[in-house]
Amino acid sequence: MTQTDSKTGFLDRNYFLLRRLHSLTGIMPIGVFLISHLLTNASIVWGRFDSREAAYGHAGAAVFQKEVNFIHSLPFLLLIEIFGLWLPIAFHAALGVVYAMSGKPNNQRYAYQDNWRYTLQRISGYVGIAFIFYHLATLRWGWTFLIPGGTQWSAEFAGSTLAQVMQGGPDGVTFKGLVVALFYFVGVSLLVFHFANGLWTSAITWGLTISAKAQKRWGVACLGVGASLMALAWAAIFGFMVLDVKSAKDAEAKILKGPLPVLEKAADAGGSSDLARTAK
Amino acid sequence: MITSLTNAPAGPHAKELAQRAANRRNAKVGRTVMVKVQRCDGPGKASRWETFKVTTERGMNVISALQQIAGNPVTTDGKKTTPVVWNSGCLEEVCGACTMVINGKVRQSCSCLLDDYAPNEGDTITLEPMSKFPIIRDLWVDRERLFHNLRRVKAWVPIDGTYNLGPGPREHPKDQEIRYKMSECMSCGCCLEACPQFNLEADESKWDTSFIGAHAINQARLFNMHATGKELAMERLDALMGPGGVSDCGNAQNCVKVCPKSIPLTESIAAMGRAVTLASFTKFFRS
């Protein structure tokens, strides 16, 4: 026994803690971030219905730009990114791969729905890692050689540059752009599934849902969460695929220039003053 | 709790069970059924397939088919071979010894009727040994790791000693009722065979750190609920918190679907998940 004790590695000595941290990080911060990220992205669609932003010419692009501006106004953003997102995701991914490799899927023989979700949870993890890496590398770290058309994403022109990334260039959707968009569609869909299913299994892991009935009930709730997030994710991809780059760019340029005189008048008249605030 | 066979079956296998019941009604005695067996001459030897012809008798199960084959071990190619080796005990689905993979799914062979699985003339039924345990020969596997894992969680009530301990604490009938279902486990290995997280491990030194399996987690819960068995509760939870413990469950939930005794294995896994969660808080703040 003592011989094996001296041989046990870091992973084995902190086994339970690491397992539970793996579960926890999937929900907080990663899952919580995923929800807010998808809500922000989908603003390119739901923002269109914000009549207060109509004066910018493209309300969707304006709302999305302001969401991005808000995120970029957060203090210590790089520290938040590194310790709140990148490290937890790297941790969750690295342990996830180790754990996933300990299993051998057997779906041909036992083709139960739960068993398919078991396998899909692992596949979505692998694809998710590749997708998140591509997503970060191209849009955050500026590896533009991985983007067809080589668009550089810009925080000041958030919507229009993102649309160019996903459409494959400034002149509408190209074939290569479609490939990128398809990768986004698959990657994001799998990650949403991964989160919703992980939310369901984590309740078993931590012992929140014990009876089969409780597990089923929580499963319905997780299905609801997953379906809602899926709708947001698909809306965002659709929104950027059909976004008119030129009118989005105009709206963003107006925000960059500062408050619009017309809008200030509207604000004085008792309207919202947040336009003026955000637009610096 | 007794389900009449004439009633429409319920549960995850309702369709399958209904089909089998229909097969049983239509099957004719004296038909020829092909029994395809995965054979292996001994540990470490290569496996091969052999097919035998069996003439069905009324109520014939897989074991009696194998007995008929043993009486005349000639394959369908006309090749004389050795009798197929299998393991069996009770022949009434309570000992678990005759567990094997039949038509791709794990179950007891004694309770498996040929009429259910091969109702027509010339139908084939396929027999394989369980894949998660080392083969001794043909359909006979060594389930030692299964029992080893029960020892990991001390799946017993500690009453051994040198003097009479007297009567134990009274048990609440409600607890007894919950425990009764869990106690029906016959250590057959179905839950392990169907589990994607439990895989063949030839290296015995790794048995203590590889996934313990649903059966052992269920037994840990059973004995932790027992008024006297509770004495070892923390030791059982320690085993479940370590490598290969309850956290290694991947929630594929095949175990509960293949369990021949319908033991709520996934509920036991969740219950022990809760127990180790609480134990970890206790350990962190109190000890």
Overview of the structural elements:
The complex is a heterodimer of chains A (280) and B (287). Chain A has helices spanning 2-7, 10-13, 15-46, 59-72, 77-100, 113-139, 158-167, 175-205, 212-241, 245-257, 261-268, 274-278. Chain A is mostly helical and 280 residues long. Chain A has one domain (12-103, 112-264, 273-277): 3 helical TM bundles of succinate and fumarate reductases, CATH 1.20.1300. Chain A is elongated and about 60 Å long. With 287 residues, chain B is α+β, with helices and mostly antiparallel strands. Chain B folds into two domains: 14-140, Roll (Ubiquitin-like (UB roll)); 143-286, Orthogonal Bundle (Fumarate Reductase Iron-sulfur Protein, Chain B, domain 2), CATH 1.10.1060. Chain B is built from ten helices and seven strands. Chain B has helices spanning 14-26, 62-71, 114-117, 144-152, 173-183, 190-193, 214-224, 233-241, 254-258, 265-286; strands at 32-40, 47-55, 99-102, 105-108, 124-128, 135-137, 140-141. In chain B, the strands form two sheets. In chain B, strands 2-1-5-3-4 form a five-stranded mixed beta sheet, covered by helices on one side. In chain B, strands 6-7 form a two-stranded antiparallel sheet. The mean pLDDT of chain B is 94. Classes of the chains: A mainly alpha (280), B alpha+beta (287). The A-B interface holds A 4, 11-12, 15-17, 19-20, 99, 102-106, 108-110, 112, 114-115, 117-119, 121, 201, 204-212, 215 and B 12, 104-105, 194, 196-197, 199, 205, 208-209, 211, 241-243, 245, 247-254, 256-258, 264, 266-267, 269-278, 280.
